[in-house]
Write a structure and sequence with these properties.
Blueprint: H1 9-19, E1 26-28, E2 36-37, E3 45-53, H2 65-82, E4 85-97, H3 102-118, E5 122-131, E6 136-145, E7 161-165, H4 175-178, H5 183-192, E8 197-201, H6 205-216, E9 219-223, H7 231-235, H8 242-248, E10 254-259, H9 261-269, E11 277-284, E12 289-292, E13 298-300
Parallel strand pairs: 4-5, 9-12
Antiparallel strand pairs: 1-2, 3-6, 4-6, 7-10, 7-11, 8-10, 9-11, 12-13
Helix pairs in contact: 1-3, 2-3, 2-5
């Protein structure tokens, strides 16, 4: 057998082990075959996973391995936020392109660790490998439900207001990497009102709204004038309109949620979060989705957005 290199997979794992932060719930971390996480109420356990591919979800360059690592954790935290969950721990699997230098590996971990520290998430373990393909990062995050239960997609009710955080469109100008997962905002909203349904907007505003409608068995009418459009979407120069970009670009990682009109008014008059809240439409009985323009004319709103073709 060939002699082990001074720097190999196990040297990298030991480096990570020396640079991860702990967590009060993590009873056993890196070093054994599995990690151990303490859950007082196992029924409240939430688990999510996302896999990011170089050339699909990011490109190095112009992005850095630190950017890629941060995004890989951030998209999972956004999924936990969509259910008003509290993230606790993450496990990370990485397939590195063969021949990358130690600084590349370490920078990727630093991107993960910085965001993990910001949200109190323990990096509990994972796996590393090398191959002749592009960089692949798969992150799984474990969290716990808050309040009475996790907020699901299937609770939208006829008459609900549809609200969102932040603004939409033009994410490829930079937001798709630098976005802030709305974990804290989701927890604050969940504490302030009864959230009937919620989702994070990753595939696109129109596409993710359709996911909520399908799971809830209802329809919706959106007001085009009420949709908050980002400056990046307004200044883009492709053939689409700004509203088309806001509805279909995806990777905004904002929250879309439904509440009663009474609680919607409460949120708008006394917002519990610093980020902008917008009332963009209503849940209706017919199982269709329509967009209403400033003249009151309605048209069918299709689920435009990102889809992985198989």
């Amino acid at each position: 057998m060939p002699a082990p290199s001074d720097y190999d997979e196990f040297a990298y794992i030991e480096w990570i082990r020396a640079h991860v932060s702990g967590h009060s719930r993590l009873t056993l971390g890196i070093g054994d075959d599995t990690a151990s996480l303490h859950f007082p109420a196992p029924a409240d356990c939430l688990i999510t996973v996302d896999m990011l591919l170089e050339g699909v979800h990011f490109q190095i360059p112009p992005l850095t391995p630190r950017n890629a690592g941060r995004k890989a954790l951030a998209v999972n935290l956004s999924d936990l936020a969509a259910m008003a969950g509290q993230p606790l721990a993450a496990v990370v699997s990485v397939a590195f392109p063969r021949g990358r230098k130690p600084d590349f590996h370490r920078e990727l971990h630093r991107g993960i660790q910085e965001l993990a520290d910001q949200f109190g998430v323990a990096v509990a373990g994972g796996d590393t490998n090398t191959w002749d393909g592009p960089l692949v990062i798969s992150v799984s995050v474990v969290g716990e439900a808050t309040g009475s239960a996790a907020v699901r997609r299937n609770g939208a009710r006829v008459g609900d207001w549809i609200l969102t955080t932040g603004s939409f469109g033009g994410s490829l100008a930079g937001k798709h990497v630098s976005f802030q997962p709305r974990v804290n905002e989701a927890l604050q909203l969940h504490q302030a009102v009864s959230l009937h349904a919620m989702i994070d907007v990753s595939d696109g505003l129109a596409a993710d709204l359709h996911h909520v409608l399908q799971e809830s068995g209802v329809g919706a009418v959106l007001s085009a004038d009420a949709i908050p459009i980002s400056e990046a979407a307004r200044s883009a120069t492709d053939e689409r309109t700004a509203i088309e970009r806001a509805l279909g670009d995806g990777e905004d990682f904002e929250l879309l949620f439904t509440v009663t009109p009474q609680e919607g008014r409460k949120l708008l008059s006394e917002p519990p979060v610093d980020v902008k809240l917008s009332h963009i439409g209503e849940i209706v009985e017919p199982k269709t989705c329509e967009l209403k323009d400033s003249a009151g004319v309605r048209r069918l709103l299709l689920p435009t957005g990102w889809t992985h073709a198989f």
